[in-house]
Sequence to fold (206 residues):
Amino acid sequence: MTENPFRIIEQDEQNFLRDWLALKILYTIPNRNSERHEFIQFCQENDFLQSISEFEFPHQAIRLYTRSFGFSSKIINTTCRTQDPLLISKILYYLKHLHEQLTRLYIDSLFWIPKFITVYRGQRFSLEEFQRLVQYKGKTILTTQYLSTTTAYHIAVAFADNNVHPTESLQNEIAVIIKISMRTKNSRLKPFAYIQEYSHIKDEKE
Fold:
């Protein structure tokens, strides 16, 4: 089952402001000489040596993120969801390159992208997680990771079905298609981009 990538912002909006500022600081602090070494060490500790040799230039960050094997989005997002600054700092070298590439693609897209777009995400939730999301309908939801979506509804449906391991029971899970309507302007802090051309997998309209 795919882990819940959302965090509910309840009554305390100070938490939202704190996380917004933390994100802004994370991507604007000057590069440290040790960042690359810490990233390499992280990859070595998690058997991602092949990924290090492939990740030589910033423009490869998206391709590495979208691979279905090895150093993948699951590792990045699991780390981001911890909200542990020390742990996140170990992959900061990669995160900055990913953020930079997404920001560049986002800025380039402002010339042609509509003011509003709709994308979809398919995944499975436990019944407990799903009920929690339903209860907080209308509340502000903060994503604590990079969120992969598609412009094609049928692809989201396929992902909701494919996120099932053969040995897992479906009794306590529910397939969910998340529809996200987005305003495309003023999103440089958390940029989004149509990455099909740069993705490792070319047919997901991501």
User: Anything to note?
Assistant: Residues 43 and 49 are 6 Å apart (CA to CA). Strands lie at 6-9, 116-126, 140-143, 173-183.
